[in-house]
Write a structure and sequence with these properties.
Helix content of chain B: over 70%
Low-confidence stretches of chain A: none
Distance between the termini of chain B: 31 Å
Structural class of chain B: mainly alpha
Number of strands of chain B: 2
Order of helices and strands of chain B: HHEEHHHHHHHHHHHHHHHHHHH
Shape of chain B: globular
Number of helices of chain A: 4
Order of helices and strands of chain A: HHHH
Low-confidence stretches of chain B: none
Strand order of the largest sheet of chain B: 1-2
Radius of gyration of chain B: 22 Å
Distance between the termini of chain A: 51 Å
Mean pLDDT of chain B: 91
Largest interface: A-B, 35 and 31 residues
Radius of gyration of chain A: 20 Å
Oligomer: heterodimer
Chain lengths: 113, 521
């Protein structure tokens, strides 16, 4: 059940991200791309398996419990940090585009070519 | 303390990183910063040379970060393929940096030009050296982050527009790459490339299902094609190359683009080719995962050669012509790869051909971009209609442009001749009639746009008198032109290196056992 809900959520996020990325407003495009990369992060977490215990093995316990894969969580942390940097840069770039062109409408930007 | 000889593997990364940080710290003194930047590029060339020689004589070197054994830690692998690509990066980076010292205005250099350039080099080196798929993603991001800022460096109207396109496309590419990596990890249970190859080669023993791998690698292929600027993922190429300062364009076209090509060779020819899928598709003869990519590579290469060539013929400005020519020339690198994927008997030769061509395009195109930068500086324009008679106005720059252009055409004794020779050799041996026809049309288009550029920009009555160009810049251009000539005349070491790299790119057992230890193979 969790998996179906997660899959639907991921689908929805990617749909929202794609929709926003195809808008004419540059800020929305940036948000769209950000939503997409966050959806990719969620997907990565899901790839580690949604069930399972906390990935800390009990001290000296006899049997190791089934744990959630910790590797994907390390991956997601890395991806989040990278996403933070790229989002900040693209927002600054958007502002710079506005300064240079006086507009952030992609149609107007294209006509200035 | 005993030093593990394999620690040299991390050398190129360290040198570039230390140079980048030192340039950042020394921002207060422009003179010192420039010295450190140039010395850093020289040191980079040196350490890459040592690494190249060590690997050529001693075989694959593997460095396990923090001594975590593969496949649990992050692994750096230097094999002949990696060192071959690093060598190209080192030469082009040195030329571009030395050229920039005079070319980029002092204010711009004082901002952050040198640190960014070296951070880009860090990303490139990491991508060439890593043996871990997620780590490859991280190095891609390091490289891209620096290149975003370098593309928008002049931050005028057209530069911001080009950078916006470049950034958004690559951000979507990064998200897609994460998806593919996550899926591959869930399917194969590992991120180590050697371990992936081992598991794919023997799916039953490791309990993995190779079927989803095909779709996931297709996602990943789109990302690499985007990085390499292969049609239909080429939209960012021309605006970004024209917006970037000339030395950065040289680096982007000469080296950063080739990271995508390297990733395709490394992952699809070495890692994913290990997997077999008994699914018959029209036009696919074998059942290895690589066989599925033969037709895809062929179609994209054909489209790149034709679109890039035709668009380059129609350009009105030198930099636009060079940018579209990059799309066409990347087709010449992918075309032998396509034939190699489809015809296993010529695979080794085909990969070697692609690698020789990679060096040809890397060196010749960066020479051309740098020359176009110097021409712009001397004349203030790159429009063919305003140039005219450059042979009399800037004779040396014209000569270096001619050398670069003829190398793209493939005239002996330049290195381009070796590239074209190997590509056509591979195609003829594979009896790939269609690919041969495409390559012929592409070669004719190349002759057409180089000739057109020469006729309109360089011959004819000069529009003004002779103009001065800076001696330092000219010296770099002449040196790079001599490299193009020397690699053509004394092409033996280049060909040997390309063959060794190609052999390493196809020697899966050797790669796997080097990374995972003898017992694993």
């Amino acid at each position: 059940m969790t998996e179906v809900a997660f899959a639907l959520l991921l689908g929805l996020l990617f749909a929202v991200g794609t929709y926003l990325a195809l808008r004419r407003d540059v800020v929305r495009v940036v948000w769209g791309v950000t939503v997409m990369s966050q959806a990719a992060n969620l997907y990565l977490v899901a790839m580690g398996g949604l069930g399972g215990a906390v990935p800390i093995l009990s001290h000296g316990g006899g049997s190791n419990p089934a744990v959630t894969d910790p590797v994907v969580q390390a991956l997601v942390l890395t991806a989040i940090v990278i996403g933070f940097g790229t989002t900040a840069f693209s927002l600054v770039l958007t502002y710079r585009v506005y300064e240079e062109h006086g507009t952030i409408d992609l149609d107007d930007l294209g006509e200035g070519a | 303390m005993a030093v593990d000889p394999a620690q040299i593997v991390i050398g190129p990364l360290l040198v570039a990183l230390v140079t980048a940080v030192a340039c950042l710290v020394l921002g207060f003194s422009r003179r010192l910063q420039v010295v450190v930047s140039v010395v850093g590029s020289l040191a980079y060339l040196l350490v890459v040379g040592v690494l190249f020689q060590t690997v050529a004589t001693g075989g694959i070197l593997v460095y396990q970060l923090s001594a975590w054994p593969a496949p649990f830690g992050i692994t750096l692998v230097a094999d002949p393929l990696s060192t071959y690509m690093l060598g190209l990066a080192a030469v082009v980076a040195l030329a571009s940096i030395v050229f920039s010292v005079r070319f980029v205005d002092p204010f711009g250099q004082g901002l952050s030009y040198h640190p960014l350039f070296h951070f880009m080099l860090v990303g490139v080196s990491g991508a060439f050296l890593t043996g871990d798929l997620f780590n490859l993603f991280v190095w891609f991001e390091v490289m891209l982050m620096a290149s975003y800022v370098l593309v928008v460096f002049y931050s005028g109207a057209e530069h911001t527009r080009a950078a916006l396109q470049y950034v958004v496309l690559n951000l979507v590419g990064s998200a897609v790459m994460l998806l593919a990596i996550g899926g591959l990890y869930a399917t194969l249970g590992t991120l180590n490339m050697a371990d992936m190859a081992r598991r794919l080669a023997n799916p039953a023993a490791f309990g993995v299902d190779p079927a989803p791998v095909l779709g996931l690698t297709a996602l990943l292929f789109a990302v690499f094609a985007l990085k390499a600027g292969i049609v239909p993922f080429h939209f960012w190429v021309a605006p970004a190359y024209r917006a970037a300062p000339a030395p950065v364009a040289a680096m982007l076209a000469g080296v950063v683009k080739k990271v995508g090509v390297y990733a395709i060779i490394r992952l699809y020819f070495l890692v994913f080719a290990a997997g077999t899928l008994p699914v018959g598709l029209p036009g696919v003869s074998g059942d290895s995962i690589l066989d599925f990519y033969g037709p895809i590579l062929l179609v994209t290469a054909t489209a790149s050669i034709l679109l890039g060539g035709v668009a380059a013929v129609g350009q009105d400005e030198v930099d636009g012509l060079l940018a579209y020519s990059s799309i066409g020339q990347i087709g010449f690198i992918v075309l032998p790869l396509a034939v190699g994927a489809m015809v296993p008997s010529v695979r080794s030769l085909a990969v070697a051909a692609a690698l020789v061509y990679t060096v040809n395009h890397g060196v010749a195109k960066s020479l051309l971009f740098l020359t176009s930068g110097a021409i712009f500086e001397a004349t203030g324009t790159l429009r063919f209609s305003d140039l005219g008679g450059l042979v009399e106005r800037v004779p040396v720059l014209s000569a270096t442009f001619l050398v670069g252009g003829l190398s793209l055409v493939g005239l002996p004794p330049l290195v381009g001749f070796l590239g074209k020779l190997f590509v056509f050799d591979a195609l003829v041996r594979a009896r790939a009639t269609f690919a041969l026809a495409v390559a012929l049309v592409g070669a004719i288009l190349t002759i057409a746009y180089v000739t057109r550029a020469w006729n309109r920009g360089f011959w004819g009555p000069p529009l003004a008198g002779e103009v001065e160009s800076h001696r330092g810049e000219v010296a770099v251009l002449v040196a790079l032109a001599l490299v193009v000539l020397a690699l053509g005349i004394g092409g033996e070491p280049l060909v040997h290196a390309a063959q060794a790299a190609s052999a390493a790119a196809l020697d899966r057992a050797g790669y796997v056992s080097a990374v995972l230890g003898g017992a694993a193979a």
